[in-house]
Each structure stands twice: as C-alpha cells, then as structure tokens.
Amino acid sequence: MIRKKNNLDEMQEQKLLKIEHYGFWFVYWGLLAAILLQVTLAADVKNLFHNIAGEWLVFMFVSIYMLIACLINGIWDRKLKPNLKTNIILSLLSGTLCGVIFFVSSYYKYGKLAGAAATGIFIFVQIFVLSIAALTFCVFIYKKRVRKLETEGEAAADDNEDR
User: Fold this and answer.
1) What's the rounded Cα separation, in Å, for the pair 51 and 31?
2) pTM for the full model?
3) Which of 29, 71, 89, 155 is 20 to 30 A from 60, alpha carbon to alpha carbon?
4) Pick from 97, 103, 101: which is nearest to 117 by CA?
5) Is residue 140 within 8 Å of residue 70, measured between CB atoms?
6) Is 87 exposed, middle or buried (0-12, 13-18, 19+ CB in 10 A)?
7) In sequence order, which residues have a C-beta less than 8 Å from that of residue 20 and are 6 or more positions away?
8) 123: closest CA among 95, 92, 88?
9) DSSP 3-state of 74
C-alpha cells in the first residue's frame, strides 16, 4: 500500500477531524430519521423491509462498528456516565420514541385509537426492556475492558520504571 504524505498541519488535522465528526453524526441521525419516517408512513407493510433494507443495513453496520470500536478502546461517551440512571433515562427515551412512532403509524394505517394506543404501549415496554438489557450488558463489557486497559497500562508503566 502506498502511503501519501499528509499535507495538513496539526490545526488543520484537528479541524478536519471535527468536520468529519459532525458530518458522520449528521448522516447517522439523518439515516435513522429517514428509516423511522418510512416505517411510520409506509402504506404497504408487506414490502416495508424491502423499501428500507439498504438504509437499515448501513445504519446497523455503522452502529455495530461504533459500538465495538468504542468498547474495545474503553470509550463510553463524552457526557453520559455508564450507570443505571443513564441506562434508565436512555431506555425511557428510546421506548417513548418507538412507542410514539408505532402509535402514529398504527393510527395512520388503521384509524383505531384503542388499537394504536395498545400498539404504542406494547412497543414502549418491549423497547424499554430490550434497551435497558442491552445498555446494562454494554456497561458491564465497558467496565471490564477499562479495568483490563488500566492494568495493562500499569504493567507497561512498571516495565518502563524497571528499565
């Protein structure tokens, strides 16, 4: 592989990383919004997955990549703490968002308020439970990985002191 010289100085490199960061998150959330909009307004439920398969595949690939890369490197988030309170809040938000989307979608497609409410509540509970379980598992993996990285760092520092 041929490596080309980097023509950017350190300041430009930092600015480019920030631009790429914002660009990535803009596309990520935009892709999610497009998927949710298509799910909410889909008239043909039977062919729904065929209509969103490409977007869903890219979204899932990027999500899984980011999750694995962050966990391997012992990175959680800039602002959120890896604890039960955060997990509950995020699970409530995701459950509420999905519940509302499925409520609106069901009401839009079938026009029955009671059925749409039942669908929304059912989806809320499912997403809440799945989210809290997934986040709790990820926090467990994250904390285990951070402990391993810290012990490796301490061992490397001890080796350097012995030299």
Assistant:
1) 14
2) 0.79
3) 89
4) 103
5) no
6) buried
7) none
8) 95
9) coil
Judged on CB neighbours under 10 Å (0-12, 13-18, 19+), 98 is buried
Direct distance between the N- and C-terminal alpha carbons of the chain, in angstroms, rounded to an integer: 36
d(C-alpha 24, C-alpha 11), whole Å = 20
Residue 124: how many other CB atoms lie within 10 Å: 20
**What is the rounded distance in angstroms from the CA atom of residue 122 to the CA atom of residue 69?**
32
Dihedral sign computed on CA atoms, order 127, 43, 41, 119: negative
CA distance 93 to 98: 9
Q: Which token pair is 53?
A: 């398969």
Q: What is the chain's pLDDT, residue by residue, as a tens digit (163 residues)?
A: 567 788 888 899 899 999 999 999 999 999 999 988 888 777 676 777 788 888 999 999 999 999 999 999 999 998 999 999 999 999 999 999 999 999 998 898 888 999 999 999 999 999 999 999 999 999 999 999 999 999 988 877 777 776 6
Q: Among 58, 127, 69, which residue's Cα sits nearest to residue 93?
A: 127
